[in-house]
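Input/output pair, single chain:
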Amino acid sequence: MLKKILLSIASFFLATGLAWAQVDINKADQAALDGVRGIGPSMSKRILAERQKGGAFKDWDDLQKRVKGVKDKSAARLSANGLTVNGQAKPGAAAGAATAKAPAKGARSQGQEGEGAKAEARPAAGK
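Output:
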């Protein structure tokens, strides 16, 4: 029984370790780039086209200047999701951990009440 538990724990850590594998932007093909959370097919095509046109990216600033759609926030998020430039994470980005996303437009955070909650809290008229 203990062996099964230890095997399960080891398998979990192995699987999560592989999921956080680093992807170097100068060595990756389209499939590897698409595997990074936050990079879709259109961005990976832009990255590859710019890499072919202008050569390898020197650093994160070079990437941000050359690839449309990669700004400070998105670069930090991509770095946190495992993307590297010449093996280097973006300075200031949380290494190996995805950043928290902002709530979707129209979504309520905990503690906020919507109109429905306010209506339920009001007593019924005439009673």
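Residues 34 and 41 are 6 Å apart (CA to CA). DSSP finds six helices and two strands in the chain.
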